Every structure is written in C-alpha cells, then in structure tokens.
Amino acid sequence: LAIEQSLHSALANGEFQLVYQPQLSLSTNTIVGSEALLRWYHPVMGSIPPDTFIPIAEQAGLIIPIGEWVLRTACKQAKKWQKLGYPAMRIAVNLSTRQFEQTNLASMTADILQETGLDPHYLELEITESMLMRNVEHAIECMEEIKDMGIDLAIDDFGTGYSSLSYLKRFPIDRLKIDRAFVSDIPQNGDDTAIVLAIIAMAHSLGLKVIAEGVETKSQMEYLADKCCDELQGFYFSPPLLPEEFTKLLKKQN
Ligand code: G
Ligand code: G
Ligand code: MN
Ligand code: NA
C-alpha cells in the first residue's frame, strides 16, 4: 500500500528514470539497438525494482501514464542520439498487459512519434506471449495496427509462455527474444542448447530475427554467434546504462 501511494506521485516528482541496455549484432559486433528499462528511486525507500512496482502500477491503472512517460522518454532519447550523429539504432520499449489492451495505444504512440520526431521504424514494442494469448484475434488486430504504422514488434521472454506455434505464424512480429532462462546454461546444458537451436531455426524459417537475452559469458556469446543467432543482450557486453554512459559507449564504437 505504501508503494501504491508513493507511485501516485512518483511521476510528478521525477522519481523515474530510464536505463538503456545495448543490443549487439552478432554478425557486425556493433550496437544495433537498446532496450529501455524503467527504474524508480524513491527518496525514502530508495531503489524499488520494476518486478515489485510494475505489477502494482498495472493493478492500480497507473501503468498507463507511467508507460506513456516511458515511451516518450525513450523516443526522445533515441532521437537525441540520432541528432548527435550516431548510427541510427532501434529503441525497444516494454509494454504491459494493460497498455497493450488500452484502446488508444496506437494513437498515443503516433502522437509521441510525431512529437519527438522519431521515425517509427526505429521503435520496437516488446510484448509477451501471455499478453497475446489472452485474446488472440484481438491481439492480432492490435499488432497489425501497430505494424501498419511502421513500428517493429518483438515477443519478449520467448519460450516461457504458452503461445502456440500455429499462432506464431499469424502474429505480425519481427523478432523473438529468447528468454534468459534458456541462455544461462548454454553451451553445457544439452536440453537448453536444443531449445535455443530450435528457436533460432524456427524463427529464421518464419522470417523472424532472434535476440538472446541474459548473455553473461564469452562462451555463450561464441556459441550463439556460431549458431547464427542475430543479436544478443546481456551483462557480458553491457548492463543497462544511464544515457550518459550509453553515449560514452557509442563514442568508443565510432
Ligand atoms: O530491468 P529489469 O531490470 O529488472 O526488469 C525487470 C522486469 O521489468 C522485466 O520483466 C522488464 O520487462 C520489466 N520492465 C522494465 N521496464 C519496464 C517498462 O518500462 N514497462 C514495463 N511494462 N515493464 C518494464
Ligand atoms: O523481461 P525483460 O527481458 O524485459 O527484462 C530484462 C531484464 O533482464 C532486466 O531486469 C535486466 O536488468 C535483466 N538483464 C539484462 N541482462 C542480464 C543478464 O545478462 N543477466 C541477468 N541475470 N539479467 C539480465
Ligand atoms: Mn523486455
Ligand atoms: Na525478457
């Protein structure tokens, strides 16, 4: 309850911040995107993890204004990096269930893109399998509306939900994000390597890109590169970074 109460004023008090985790191409070894991740620093309670406050914000309906702030801040930052002259990168933003089911998601997103001047092709929205499976036909309509705007769609935490393969074919998505649970024990664990290989093969045969999440070691990276996984994200390359730190990394790369 204390958390819910504090959440009501957190936006107005400027207590939220976004950090950005780089996404690396395994073919070019360059940063091709980033995922925006929300952080909350409460003046008294300190840092509160998103796993704790996002479900509360979701339940209280506060995720709608918070999610809009996240989207606007991330698009603004992406545009800022482009204006600074860095090679254009994708920016990925997580959506919650309530946001995805919000009727004005497309128009709200269109307004933010216009306001920030970000080309929609550089925006990617991350949704989870469970969000899609609640009402598949409606989800497909929503996804198509977003795709028609030129925005990319990714399925987050792929492999942990219950999406059926027959639907996967019908979802207008661009990318699968392999959940880190399958990545943490590769290449030693035979079951996990089998799952990762199957996801990569299936994604590619459906014309989708694949990104591995939670890559923490060199041997995981080498294995994924060898198996033609497209991209990676994880502590091995970089944790989520404050915008200034991310800019330093971009500078180093150029
Ligand atoms: O950033 P990690 O640090 O701890 O994120 C934990 C969880 O919170 C992840 O499942 C992530 O998808 C989710 N998350 C982080 N930022 C956001 C956000 O801006 N919106 C939503 N809906 N979820 C987020
Ligand atoms: O659920 P989602 O994929 O949106 O959340 C990303 C989460 O994964 C964030 O909490 C982020 O801090 C975390 N994360 C990013 N890289 C790594 C990693 O290499 N290892 C682990 N354990 N967590 C990671
Ligand atoms: Mn995510
Ligand atoms: Na994930």
From TrEMBL:
Coiled coil: none
Occurrences of domain EAL (ranges): 1-254
Name of the protein described by the UniProt record: cyclic-guanylate-specific phosphodiesterase
Organism: Photobacterium lipolyticum
Source organism phylogeny: Bacteria, Pseudomonadati, Pseudomonadota, Gammaproteobacteria, Vibrionales
Residue span relative to the full protein: 576 to 829 of 839
